[in-house]
Every structure is written in structure tokens, then in C-alpha cells.
Amino acid sequence: MPDDVRLPIRLEADSSAESARADRGAAMAFVTDPQSESALREGLLDALPEGIETRRADIYAAIAALQKIPALRVLVVDISGEEQPVGALAQLSEVVEPDACVLVVGESNDLGLYREITRGLGAAEYLAKPLTRDLVSRHFSPLVRGQAPARTGLRGGRFITVTGARGGVGASVIAANLAWYVGALGRRHTALLDADLYLGTAAFLLNAEAGSGLRTALEAPDRIDALLAERASRPVADRLHVLSGQENLAQQVGYAPGAGGQLVEVLRKRYNFIIGDVAWRPAPLSRDLLQLADHRVLVLTPTLASARDALRILSLNGSAGAARKQGASLVLNRLGMPGGLKRAQVEEALDMPVDVVIPDLPREIGTAATLGEPAAAQSGAFSRAIAELAGVIGSSGLPQFGKTSILARLQSLFGNRK
Questions:
Q1: Distance from CA of residue 168 to its chain's centroid?
Q2: In terms of C-beta density within 10 A (0-12 exposed, 13-18 middle, 19 or more buried), how is residue 360 classed?
Q3: Residue 403 — pLDDT band, cuts 50, 70, 90?
Q4: Where are the alpha helices (H) located in 155-283, listed in sequence order?
Q5: Pair type for strands 234-237 and 240-243
Q6: Which one of 28, 101, 339, 364 has the fewest CB atoms closer than 10 angstroms to its CB?
Q7: Which of the 8 DSSP states describes residue 93?
Q8: Cα–Cα distance for residue pair 103/128, rounded to 1 Å
Q9: Dihedral sign, CA of 175, 178, 184, 189?
Q10: Could you give the C-alpha distances from 146 to 79, 102, 105, 149, in angstroms and in order?
């Protein structure tokens, strides 16, 4: 491939009249699967209020189409399944205007390919599938808006909060099982942070001991460092730790301004994922943690009261729709519960779809909680829903096991724990 073959890249906003030419289309995506189409539409809605046109097509179909349609400001192409992706992109460079923003998606996580596409060919960015709304919003949207993407440390972990629309909807159970699935089963370094220092159940659900280190961190943030975070957490599995408290109900726990942020920053340096069980309360700790989250999961049950409160929480910092675009997902728990609404009725009340549905499983969930074992360890509807939620928050490529394999893995992880 000639050295001078480069795809166009646009890192600075162009306010000239040329950028708004009438014969120039706004954005178009050529991708090969419906999940990527959906992720691009939702993830780019903030940057492209007019929307992005999508076509189910590979890169060669895109090349053929681009020779017949008006020039584009933003182009997304899919190189999945291509044996010679670099050669295909070199052909694409011949039919794309030099100042277009070209974004590439594919199946490979190979670092060499990423460098060749972004540095060698000059594409604005490359993302490996499966795409999620959050990934697209975080990595593609700044470039579409003409801005350089925000840089984060390569080892910085993601902070995910799980919040109940109201008490008793099962948010703590979902947070604990999501952390177990990502950490113990998926082998990502994971911390489960329980923000309720008095009545939190995260440690209880995973048969771990609560400690006093979390209170120390929140009362004296100047003492927060990696060593304190390590000592304050309790191991549940090789790559899963729980950070929780069980403070005296008669004592007031102090909270130093900014302590939540300092704690999360320290945890990001140690863990790939921090799953926070954070109830919504008009208290500084809850407010700070929810604002710091990279992705917020809101749990509700199929009742009108739960749907009403879910909308109220989503609308705290603007419209509910805007909250969804900014990285919020809805989990409908206990679908099929006695007297509950149907899924369609809940979505009608919310005026938006839910992301993950968990059926009503009182016996399975209750037994697991009593034994202090993760309900997601058993194959079935609940474990499938937790696996789906893990994909929604951006933890892809997790292993899938049958029932026998899961139980064997569970025994190896928990069998020698004191």
C-alpha cells in the first residue's frame, strides 16, 4: 500500500461555509449487523440530533454506494469478516472526501490493526464489536462533533452504579450478581462498592464480611490511597472484592466533601470494573457517586409507582431521554410478579423501552441470598439476564458456561474461602 494513502480525519470543528454545503450529507453508516445499527443510532443521537442513516452492508458495498451518493461529513464503515481490511480501507480512501470523519468498526481487538487503521490510514477511530450505546457515545461522539476524544488512562477502570427506582426492587441483588459475573466468572478485576454503610446487603449476598475501612475513607479522604482501598475491601473470589460497612445505627458517619470522588479514582487504578450499589438519596455521598458513574443502571419492578419514580430519577438532570443518551440503562426486574404490569404496559408508562428484563424468581433469588451465594451461578433466566446486563455496561467477551461448569467453577472459587 502506498505510504501516502490515508483516510481523512477531522479533529477540529470547521465553521466555514464549506462544512455546511447543501450537497453534502450529514452522516451514514454501513454495518453488517442490527446490534451495531442500534448502538450507532442511540450512541450518536447527542452528536447528530438529525440522526444517522444506516445501511446493512459491508465495506465494499459502502465503496460502491459512495460513488453514487452525495459526499458525507461523517462515515462509519464495517470491516468485519474482511481478510484484507487495510486494503479495503485503502480503496475506501479513494472515494471519501479528504475532510470527512471516517469511523471504523470490526471484529478484531488486535492492537496492530488498530494502529494501522488510525495511525497508518488516518481513520478517526476504530472500535471492535460488540458495539454498545455507551461505547459509541464515549469514543465516536466527540469526533463527530469535531472535538478530540477525551483521553483516559489505559488502566483506568469503569464505574457502574446500580440504583433502585424505589426500595425493594432488587437493585442490591442485581448489583452483587453483576459484580460476581464480571469478576469471578469473567475474570475482570472487579470491586463491589456498597454505599449504604448502615443497612447495605452487598457483603451479605456474597457471604463476605463488612469492614470499617470504607467509613475511614469517607471521613478522612486525605488517607485514601491504594493500600487503604486494598485493606478496606474483602475478597470474595480471585478477582472480586467487596467494599462495604456495617456501622452502628446510633452513630453518624461523617462525609468529607469530595471523598467519594477520591475513593472512586483510587479504585479505578486497581480494578477494571467498580460496581456501585448506590441508592438514590438526597445525601452528598449518593449524589457524588451517581454523578461520577460512567454508566448508570436503574432497576424497577412492573408497577406504576416504580415506573413513576424511575422517570423522576432519570429526569433529575434534564429529560429522561437525555439521561438514556448519556449512559443510563433500565432493568425491569420481577416481570410476572403477582399483580404486576406487563412489559408493554411498563414501557408505555415510561415512554421508552427497557434494556434488560428479569422474570420473577422469588424462590431462586431467596435461596441464593439466604446461602450467601450468587444466584447468577445457576444457569437459567436470571444468569442469562445478568450476562445480558454485563454486555450492556460494556463488559463483552465474558465466558458462557453450562450449569455443570458454572457449579464446578463456583466450587473452585469459593471452596477454600475462610
A1: 24
A2: middle
A3: very low
A4: 171-180, 202-205, 213-219, 226-232, 259-270
A5: antiparallel
A6: 339
A7: T
A8: 11
A9: negative
A10: 23, 12, 19, 9
Place of cell 419492578: 301
Report domain extents, the chain. 17-144, 158-414
Spatial contact of 378 and 402, defined as CB atoms under 8 Å apart:
no
Please enumerate in sequence order all residues whose Cβ is within 8 A of that of 181, keeping only pairs 6 or more positions apart, or say none: 374, 376, 383, 386, 387, 390, 398
All three cell numbers of 249: 445505627
Cα–Cα dist 98/95, whole Å: 9
The amino acid at 255: Y
User: Which tens digits make up the pLDDT trace of 30-74?
Assistant: 999 999 999 999 999 988 988 899 999 999 999 999 878 877 889
> What does the alpha-carbon distance between residue 170 and residue 365 come to, in Å, rounded to a whole number?
10
Query: And the C-alpha cell for 183?
Result: 469478576
Give the cell for residue 221: 479522604
- Give yes or no on whether 17-144 and 158-414 have one common fold: yes
Q: Is the peptide bond before 130 cis (omega within 30 degrees of 0)?
A: yes
**Cell digits of residue 175:** 448489583
pLDDT tens digit string along 284-341? 999 999 999 999 999 999 999 999 999 999 988 666 766 665 678 999 999 999 999 9
CATH code for the structural domain at 158-414 = 3.40.50.300
Q: How many residues does the chain have?
A: 418
Name the CATH code of domain 17-144 (choices 3.40.50.20, 3.40.640.10, 3.40.50.2300, 3.50.50.100): 3.40.50.2300
> Who contacts 46 (Cβ-Cβ below 8 Å, separation ≥6)?
137, 141, 325, 326
Rounded CA-CA distance 260/291 in Å is: 10
CB 81 within 8 A of CB 34: no
| Distances, alpha carbon 104 to alpha carbons 80, 98, 236, in Å | 10, 16, 39
pTM: 0.65
CB 297 within 8 A of CB 174: yes
Could you please report the per-residue DSSP string of 323-387?
Answer: HHHTTEEEEEEEET-TTPPPHHHHHHHHTS--SEEEE--HHHHHHHHHHT--GGGS-SHHHHHHH
